[in-house]
Every structure is written in structure tokens, then in C-alpha cells.
Amino acid sequence: MKLDMKLKPELGVCYYPEHWPEDIWADDARRMVEMGLPWVRVGEFAWSRLEAEPNQFTFEWLDRAIETLANTGLKIVMCTPTATPPRWMVDKYPDMLAWDAEGRPRGFGSRRHYDFSHEGYRAECVRIARILGERYGAHPSIKAWQIDNEYGCHDTTISYSPVAKQAFQKWLFEKYKTIDDLNSRWGTVFWSMEYSRFDQIECPNLTVTEPMPAHAMDFRRFASDQVVSFNKLQSDVLRDHTKVDLLHNYMGRVTEFDHFAVGEDLDIATWDSYPLGFLEDRSDHDADYRAKYSREGDADFQALHHDLYRAVGKGRWWVLEQQPGPVNWAPHNPSPKAGQVRQWTLDAFDHGAEVVAYFRWRQLPFGPEQMHAGLLRCDGELSEGGKEVMALARELESYVPNKARATVAIVFDYASQWAWEVQPQDQNFNYFRLILDVYTGLRRSGHDVIDILPSTSEDFGDYDAVFIPGLFTWTDALRGAIERFNGQLIIGPRTGSRNEDFHIPQTLPPGLDGLKVTAVDTLRPDTPLSLKDGGHLQIWREDIETNWTVIDKTTGGKPARVTSENMTYWAGWPDAEALDIWLSQMLSNR
Ligand code: GAL
After folding, report:
1. Strand ranges (DSSP E) for 102-195?
2. 3-state secondary structure of 380
3. Whose CA is nearest to atom 6 of ligand 1?
4. From residue 203, how far is each of 159, 227, 414, 577 by CA, in Å?
């Protein structure tokens, strides 16, 4: 994928006029422009101020806020407020709340309190999106629309509610048509789990022990599809009223829905980049690493998301919320070191971002995020991050992003994350972690920008190498892409080890000629296996039968890396040392 570097990088900020007295809006807008922030995002949580009671609208304040921002020349990202249904909505539809895995409804009192499957709430979202679209869709200063806010954040993709159960049964009926087909493909003969009707099927929580993997996997597919169709309802209605770009702001390491599928209905992928929060809150690194990078974050984690969202946006992507100082929500919330906000911003542009916007304009003295930094302090003076951004905006006038073009790519497949959560086999086997390990190894070997490819890719183009680690099941598209590809293919571990129905393939994995995985051995953190060429296998190792050439072995003599023509298979998960050795041998053999 080519990075489009013709675009001039631009900055922006997230603003909540409803949080501030109206008499400071004009000054805020003027200061945004003076700081060099041409973009401003508004409205994503403002539903209760727009419709305090059903069908009683108060748009005038938002009209005035938009005019105030527009009069200074700011470009506006307008949002639909559907991540924060107002209290009356929950009174109207008490069953719209999602349920957790313990079978408890999640309460009103923060945000994202809705179930993607609730038909009444879906209709309300279409209604508010239509009303907003009618009112603002043609506004000349509104240059983009954001739908909802951070799908899946706060563990909100999956719900085990009665409405989810009903929608799941319908989804299953549409997929299988007959209960016999479902029974045979799920394999419900095991433990006498056979069903006679679709309405007997529950969500796969609260079972005494493990549910059928195929049941749990279908539930994950269903949950993802609900997000996709929820988003599409709003994108369809907005398209009737506006010609500008539609986007969503995705989160870091949220893998419960297929972002590529959501992205099909949008024009730009954006993501919310909180490097220090992510390092503390969702990194696999140990305490020493986290301490070392506590004021910078994990640059590889950041870069992976930049590259992932570039793929989700089919080349077009932004950072819509960039951390400008400490956040409030991680176990520890340090401030970035001096210069780091600038560095994060430049890194995003070097990966092809069109816009980087900061969350938020001014620190808010009330509410759960009162400890979250903004570009301004509560007293309206510039924060440390704000000062950095102000200087950066000047620097950007002449900044030319690096023109790196990716020569290697990694296939990233959301369904594989779900599959290996359904069946980890080893508690440390995490698909995202495997992808991030490979990605990080490639960065250490000198690849700053790496393309991420969905499992629907039909053609790998002219990359030097494409990596397909941990893929749950082959797609026809990938099979075709592999056949046509002349570069190096690096496959495994665990790739192709199940069919669509979560069965072990009859001919044994990975489904490549001359190679069979005959057994799997998982490795405790204290039992890594050393390799002849250096480094270790960790977490996962496979016994293979093969006529391929063995190029690395465990010191005990088991094949660990084998090759045939342009393909290499990894029969285990290399640690960082082994990965560096394998990648350097591979890249020098080119
Ligand atoms: C994001 C969210 C924002 C704000 C921010 C705080 O996840 O979209 O609304 O809560 O986190 O860091």
C-alpha cells in the first residue's frame, strides 16, 4: 500500500461546548486557530443536551456553537451521540442494557450502556442520526462525521442479554437454516448437547464448563456482525444527508469486532492513541519494560495500530484522540516526558496519518475525567502538552513526513483472535501478542512501516515478504493470494489449524503440501526450548512431519523452522532472540 504523502499533515482537537459557558466559546475557537489546530470535533456525548426528553429538541445551542467555530474557519467533525443514550432512553427501554458474562445487566451512570442487538435502541440511533443529518448534513464547515464513539471500549461488544440471545438465535437460523446442519457442524453429539430447535440455544456464558468451541466462535462472529450492522444503520442514513467523509474512532487493542468489516461502510479509519495508558493498561510487557517506557509508551504497539488502521481505512486514517498529558484511567498515569507529545504526533504522520487531533481542549474540573490532561489547564492556561503542540504546529508548516513504503506485510485477522480466546490451549497464547511480537521483530530488523492485510486479501502484490502467523482458518481469498505470490511467505505457528466449523482438518494442519502438524506441545514460561541457531521457542511448539528442508531445530533435534520454495513454516513461537536470528537470516537470503 502506498502512503499518500501529498497531503499536508494537520492538527485538531476534541471540544465539548456543552461543558463550558457560552461566553468563552469564541475565545476558545480563536485560540484553536492561533495554536494551529484547523480541525475540531464536537457532539459525541451531547444527546441529553440535544433531546432532554423524547422528541423535545434543543439544537439552538449547538447551532450557535457550530457557527462560532465555523466563523473562525475551523473545520468541524460532527458526531452522532449514540455512545451515550440519555437516561430517558433507558427508562423507555429497560432491556436495552448489555449483560455481562455473569448474567448481570450493566447499569446506567457512565457511557456505552447499550446492547448492539436492541432493536428499539437501533431505531433510536437511526432517528437521531437522521435528525442530525437533516439539520447539519449540508453545513459547509462540517467536513466529516464521526459515528458513535469507540465501539467495544469498556468491554461493550459482547452482551449476554435476553435481546442478544434472541438476535443470536436468528443469526444462527440465517446461517444454518436447519438445526440438523447446526448440530452436525457444531458437533453437539459430544456430551449430549444436541438441539431440536434454534430457540433452545443460549449464549455461551454460564455453562458449567467449556461450551462447544463452534458455539462460542459463532457467538463471537455474531457479536462482531452486530457492531457492523449497527454502524451501517447510521452510515446509511448519514449518506442520505451528507457528502463528506464518515469515520469512526477505534480504540487500541480492541479486537472483539472485525474493524475491517466496519471500515467497509466508512471513508476514514481513525483511532484514539493513548500510549502511556495503553502501556499500563493493555500491554503484555513485564514491569521492567513498563517502567523503562513509562513516559514514552510502547512505540511498536503504537506503530502497529497506525499501520492497522491505515489498512482498515483503505489508506485513509487519522488519530482522532491523541493523549496530550496524563490520562486518568490506567493503573498508573505518568506524564509524558518532554517532547513526547510532539514525537507521538510526528510518528503518526510518518505512518501516513492525515490528521492528529488531541483529546481534549481544556481539562474539565468535574466528572470522572477531571484528572485527564487537556491542551489547556482548568484555568485556561496552556498545559505542558499544549505548549508542545503549539510549537509543533509551527514546525509542521514545513514538515515533510518520511516517505517509507512498506516492503513487508502481516496478515491480521480478527476472527483468529476470537478463535484462540475460545481455545487458547495455553493461557499465554494470545493472537494479538503473536502479531505484535512479529511486528516488533520486523521493526527491530529495520522495517519502520509495515502493511497490515486482512484475511480477505486476494492479492499480496509485490511485497518482499508476507507473514501469516496464528491464522485460525484459511480463506479462499488467502489461498488464492498465496498461489499467485512470488515473495517470501512465512506461515505459522498454528496457522490453518481449524476449519470454519472449528474442527481439526482431516488432513491435519496447516493445509500446505508436504507438511503436517502431528501434535502440539505448549510451553510454560519456565520451560522454553532452546534452538540450535540461538534463542528459544516459547508458549507454543508443534511436532511436524515434512519433506520440507529443516533450517532450524530445537537443541533436542525437533524441526522448528522449515522451508520449501518461497514458503517458510514456523513450528513454534520464537522468543525475541530467535525471531531476530530468523528474520536476519531470512532477510539476508533475499
Ligand atoms: C477515550 C474516549 C474519550 C475519553 C478518553 C480519555 O477512550 O473516546 O471520550 O474518555 O478516552 O482518555
Report:
1. 142-146
2. coil
3. 327
4. 9, 17, 20, 42
Residue that the C-alpha cell 499500563 belongs to: 280
Question: 10, 150, 354, 388: which is the annotated catalytic residue?
Answer: 150
Rounded CA-CA distance 80/146 in Å is: 6
Ligand 1 pocket, 274 CB below 6 A? yes
Mean pLDDT across the chain: 97
Q: Is the CB of 15 under 6 A from ligand 1?
A: no
Beta bridge partners, 14, equal 41
Q: Which atom of ligand 1 is nearest to the CA of 327?
A: 12
Sign (positive/negative) of CA torsion 289, 291, 293, 299? positive
Average pLDDT of the residues in 149-168: 98
- Residue where the block lists cell 490453518: 496
Q: For 470-520, write each residue's pLDDT tens digit.
A: 999 999 999 999 999 999 999 999 999 999 999 999 999 999 999 999 999
pLDDT of residue 589: 55
- Cell digits of residue 13: 482537537
**What domains can be seen in the chain, in order of their start residue?**
10-158+225-395 (3.20.20.80), 162-216 (no CATH), 408-588 (3.40.50.880)
Residue 470: closest CA among 413, 553, 408:
413
Distance of CA 420 to the CA centre of its chain: 17
Provide the 3-class DSSP secondary structure of residue 175. Answer: helix
- Residue of the CA atom closest to atom 10 of ligand 1: 369
Cell of 79: 458526531
150 annotated active-site: yes
Pairing type for strands 559-564 and 549-553 reads antiparallel
Per-residue pLDDT tens digits for 391-402: 999 999 999 998
| Residues counted in the chain | 590
CA distances (Å), 147 to each of 19, 38, 144, in order?
A: 21, 20, 10
44 lines ligand 1 (CB under 6 A): no
Spacing, Cα 252 to ligand 1 middle (Å): 11
Name the pTM for this structure: 0.97
**pLDDT-above-70 percentage for the chain:** 98
